[in-house]
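Human:
Take a look at this sequence-structure pair and walk me through the tokens.
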Amino acid sequence: MKKLLLMIMSIMLILGFSLLEIHAEETSGGNEYAGGYVKKKPSDKRGALGAGIILGDPTGPTVKYWFNPRLAIDLGIGFNDDFSLYSDILIHEWSLLPQPSKGSLAAYFGGGLRYENKDKDDEFGFRAVGGVAYWIESHPIEVFLEVAPVFQVSPDIDANFDAGIGLRYYFTVL
């Protein structure tokens, strides 16, 4: 049963990536918000890739890839008491929050999948993510805070909660 669930979740991720790539090709690259244009940052270019760390639950390395200025995917590995792995599709809204005089601020939301090896049990679930990201002006750095209710579907139906604060450095533009 666990192998079947893992296979289904993998297929969903592959289909999600494919649909996101199609959406990214069709979406315009504007970053407009009420009152003007959001300052340039690494996410303005398709293919921006950042790596960093998230502290909280889970705590560990994280990476983020931008399809366009609004759409990204993240991946994280947690090494708290248990090993966990998550990936989310994220939509960023640059006009939802007032923009600071320096840097850029976005609210984001999305969803994804989570795996956790807890007490030698494999747990699978879905995440609903919400957060805030701040881009430091003139530096390829993103500071973020996020919360994510987790709806566990295997081996038992349950609910959990992930939350963390993190930092990513954008070192590559593909």
Confidence is low (pLDDT under 50) at residues 24-38. The first strand starts at residue 32 and ends at 33. Strands lie at 32-33, 36-37, 48-57, 60-66, 71-79, 83-93, 104-118, 121-135, 141-154, 158-173.
